[in-house]
Amino acid sequence: MVTVRRALSLWGVGSPVLLVLSLVVAVVIAPAQDSAVDFEGRTIGRIEFVPPDQPFPRADLDRLLPFHPGSTLTRADIRAAIQKLYQTGRFADISIDAELEAEKVAVRITTKLTYFVSLVTIDGASDPPNKGQLMTASKLELGAEFADNDMEQAAQNILERLRANGLYGSTVQYHVDRIPATEEINIHFDVNSGTRARFDGVKLTGTFKESPASVIGQTRWRRGLGPLTFYGWREVTENRVQTGVNRVLQHFQRGDHLQARVTLDRLDYHDSTNTVTPTLLIDSGPILQVRPEGAKLSKGRLRQLIPIYQERTVDRSLLVEGRRNLVEYFQSQGYFDAQVDFDETSPEPGESLIDYRITRNARHKLIKIGITGNHFFDSETLRERIYITPVSFLRFRYGRYSQKMLDRDLETIRDLYRSNGFREVEVTAATVDDYKGKPGQISVTLAVKEGPQWKVSKLTIEGAPADDLEHLRSVLRSTDGEPFSETNVAADRDTILAYYYNNGYPDATFDWAQTPGPSPDRVDLRYVIHVGKREFVRAVLVRGLETTRPSLVAHRVLLGPGDPISQSRIAESQQKLYDLGIFSKVETAVQNPDGDEENKYVLFRLDEAKKYSYNVGFGAQLGRIGGGVITFDEPAGTTGFSPRVSLGVSRLNFLGAARTLSLQTRFSTIEQRVVTSYTAPQFTGNENLTLTVSGLFDVAQDIRTFASRRWEGSMQLAQRLSRANSVQYRFTYRRVTISDLKISPELIPLLSQPDRSGILSMTFIQDRRDDPINSHRGIYNTVDIGAALKQFGSETVFTRVLMRNSTYHPIKRDVVLARTLQFGYIQRVSGFPEIPLAERFFGGGATSLRAFPDNQAGPRDLQTGFPIGGNALLFHSTELRFPLIGDNIGGVLFHDMGNIYPELRDINFRFRQRNLQDFDYMVQDAGFGIRYRTPIGPLRVDFSLSPNPPRFFGFQGTLDQLLAGQGTLTTQRISVFQFHFSLGQTF
């Protein structure tokens, strides 16, 4: 018998290991009288595999064997058979023996399978550490080869992670399930966490002058304040320990002990009390002072520029880097000739002093940047890549310039030319002081010497299959006649390897060479590709699903049996699974990656996210909500502040179908809202469909004329038609009651009735903006069409159209001209009641017409002056957006015009109000806004002035006087000045 064990795992043809194996086989075979050697040269009658179920079909196994029934048995063939079977990576043990049957030899091949890590589960663990941290600690990688001795080390790693989090009494049990059909090993850990230990004190060692109580208080490991400890000590977690040590360190470093060191010397666990005593080793270090001389710098700026504050140590290299940073900072402030030096001294024992001597010299302004010698690229193209900037009003008062910036710009231009074949390009800079005879002004001229452009004379591709050549040449940069550069070759390398990696060739390699072409400045390129062996998907194995429907995952996995193994498709499948929002982790791997087999399993291991998620938010609304004479409840409004709190809970992956149930609430002084919703993304398995069913209860006073109470239910199906276009189909049924009406008594019976509406609507959205949060170019269109019909339960029958068109045009770098047009119309069907207040258009405010406070535009009650809305609207806004100060603060000049109108026929372009009863004219405003860039969108403040705000009659008196027909009318108006504070661009 010949046996090969797993220890020989690095076989290769002609390798020393193979030579040793051959000798071992020879030694085993030679002395055995009843083994395969006795049948050397005999004819093979049959070949049997034990067990019969093997990881390959029998036809594939027969192709791997160098012998077959009818051939002659030899030692060399036995060795070759063992090697080929073993190199597949699918077998842990292989043994071959033979026996005589009817003058022929029966060969029996006995195998033991190799297993690979698939599913790993951990149950019973207390958080922290969470399951993800414990799985990482186990070091059992998906798809990796499994060995029995891995389990003890994995369990020990998990125990270490548990004990680091105070779970000293925890135990870990495990068991494994083997799946022979797919050679998977499923590993299950059962954790008994026990009781988490608590701190019971802190030992402090080392040199420091702080009181022990003060230092211990910085750790926050005990409850209570100051010396009060009757609340006890906190539980031990790894994060709490590390955070406490860092707090102590930061405490010392804030006191100019920049070189302080605080380390956790040890954690002493007391089994009898289940408590832990940390020991901290503290070295407060010398008192360090950094002192700038010759220029004023804030402490915060100094800490930002000198890297010793970030590195928490002092050495010469960091001090030199700080000198360079200071020079660059002062150069950016206009001191282009600034010089900085430093000295390090120790005036007292235990003290260290670093003096930075700063000589700013004269302040300059960068007035002009010129570019000469460029022919292949125009100057505008080069300017887009230059960071130095000439002086501009407010934003860069002295320009943006430093030697480091200039050097970087020169190299950027060189790289641009080199990538386009100009291998000998030279770019230099010349600086002129006292530009145009004015002291302190400088100009910089960038001189480009392009040199010849090198091009590819001929590209030869070797090693690629003939069927791939046409495709490869269509995607390569360095084809015949194109510019030659190493940058393009590197891009071609990535393109070629990505193509083959994504078509099942994981071992593909690329090499290239160049030779002189037929003429100067021409090269011949040769690409040499070794594609290697192609691999295909045997099957896709999905593991880890508990409540999620398998079909939901199967529809989003883009590979199937027989497909080439594509890393891009695996990654895209992974992203589609993440997009469902129900998995906290999606791992992918190829089983047996190093095995020499054509068909391999692709593994997906999914960790389902927690079923419930919660959110809490705080905010506020601030703005000038009107102005003018204070009258009956102030119809024109006042400056207001409304705090807001939001709470929400969501149930994810409802019924295992990636559906979401959510309850969201919002409470403020002007609105109380509760919304429940059921969302089904990728409805019916179509990733372009999303179904949403929602219910709403809302109490609002955002329109000063009345308070509303709304009950609403809706169903919406959203369909994505293309990347830019989508459509929403919606049915809404709502009932709205009106209260606290502040209008003339004659209108109250007409407008205070409850409104019941059933509306079928459709919205088309076209979004071609480059950035929806802060757009610089593109177009945004929406069209919303709806109908409230009696058949849908509506008391009032009407149709409704609301359209918007927004465009964004870049004028020059960072300057954008944006405009938007909004048009709306409600058509009442004759014979039915008037359009109720709840369905009318209300407008004005931060996102429509900034001449008005929120919802103050349009028709008004002629007796009280409160807005009553309209059935038509037309707004137009234009904004010029530009940088203002630095890179984060921008400015906006804007102009708005428009209004809310009673009916479509009342829309006109008249800019003058005829009398106090006339509101059907175009109100205008112009103003200035500030935008501060934040990660979630620009923070904005707008100040507007209106030359023609409406005047109107307002009621002066009490509500009782109004109802009794008493009180007096006074002339009021919307304030000429308005300000609005919000987040995000206006449109």
List the defining traits of the structure above.
alpha+beta, Ubiquitin-like (UB roll), four-stranded mixed β-sheet, disordered N terminus
**CATH third-level topology of the largest domain:** Porin
- What's the number of domains? 8
Distance between the termini: 81 Å
Radius of gyration: 39 Å
Mean pLDDT: 88
The largest sheet has its strands arranged as 24-25-26-27-28-29-30-31-32-33-34-35-36-37-38-41
Biggest pleated-sheet summary: 16 strands, antiparallel
The CATH C-level name of the largest domain is Mainly Beta
Describe what this molecule looks like in 3D:
This protein is an alpha+beta fold. It has eight domains: 112 residues, Ubiquitin-like (UB roll), CATH 3.10.20.310; 77 residues, Ubiquitin-like (UB roll); 86 residues, Roll (Ubiquitin-like (UB roll)), CATH 3.10.20.310; 72 residues, Ubiquitin-like (UB roll) (Roll), CATH 3.10.20; 85 residues, Roll (Ubiquitin-like (UB roll)); 76 residues, membrane protein fhac (Ubiquitin-like (UB roll), Roll), CATH 3.10.20; 74 residues, Ubiquitin-like (UB roll); 370 residues, membrane protein fhac: a member of the omp85/tpsb transporter family (Porin), CATH 2.40.160.50. Helices cover 19% and strands 40% of the residues. The chain has 18 helices and 41 strands. A 16-stranded antiparallel sheet has the order 24-25-26-27-28-29-30-31-32-33-34-35-36-37-38-41, with no helix packed on it. Strands 1-3-4-2 form a four-stranded mixed sheet. The longest helix is centred in the N-terminal third of the chain and has 17 residues. The N and C termini lie far apart (81 Å).
